[in-house]
Amino acid sequence: MTCKCFKCSGSGLEYNDAHPREKCFARKCPACAGKGFIPPASVKCFKCRGSGLEYNDAHPREKCFASKCSACSGKGYIPPASIKCFKCRGCGLEFSDLHPHEKFFAHKCAACSGKGYLAGAAPSATSPTPSPVNIITGFHQTSVSAAAAILKAQRFQPGSGGIAGGGIYFALNAKDTNQKAQRHGVVLRARVDVGRSKIMTHFDPSLTGSRLADEGFDSVFLPTGDGVNLSANEYVVFDTRRITDIKRV
Hints:
HSP_DnaJ_Cys-rich_dom_sf; mainly beta; single chain; four-stranded mixed beta sheet; Phosphoenolpyruvate Carboxykinase, domain 3
C-alpha cells in the first residue's frame, strides 16, 4: 500500500507563497512527481517534518529563504523503518551549551551525521516480528464481517480513534469485550506482545504509535481506577506485528 505524500498532503502540487491557494501558480510536487503518493512504509522526515525544507533562522516561515532539507533531499520522507535519532531527537544538530537554541552555533550531530534519523531494517514478508518481551492473551470483539477479514489475513488494522488514540484495543478476558467493543458479533483471541507498557491514568485520544515509541514504550495499559474510570483493564498496541495467533473464541 502506498503512502500519501507528506510534502503536498496528497494533492500532487506545490503552491506558490504569493498565491497559496491558486492552482494556476502551483507546480508539480517534486517529492512525489505530482502523483500525490510515495513508496510504501515511507517515514516522514524528522528533520523537516515532511516539508522537504530547512528554514532560515532569520526567516523561519518563508520558503524563498529556505533550502532543501539535507536529511531527505527535499522529498519530505526517509527510508522505511528509520527511527528518530536519540541524541539530537531528529533535528540533526548538536547545540552549544552557551547557545542552546541557536543553530548558528550548533554542529552536525555525530550520531546520525546530521540526518536526524537512524536507519533500520525495512520490513518484508520474511522479516521476523519483534522478539517477544511480554506476551499476554488479549481479547477483542468486532463485527462478523470484520472478524472474518482479520482471521483470513491474520492481521488487525489499527482503529481511527479511541480513548488512547487509534490503536488496537484488547481486554484480558472475553466477557469484558462486551462492554468495551464498538462493534459486536465475534470475540477474537490473540497472543499480544505488549512489550514495555505505558500505564496511563488519563485518556489521551490524540496518542499515536510514533509518539508512544518516542517515549520509549510499545503499548499502553489502561487500569481500572487511578482516575481512568474504566470498568475493566485493557491494553492498546499500535504495531500490528505484535499481534499473532489470532483465533475465534
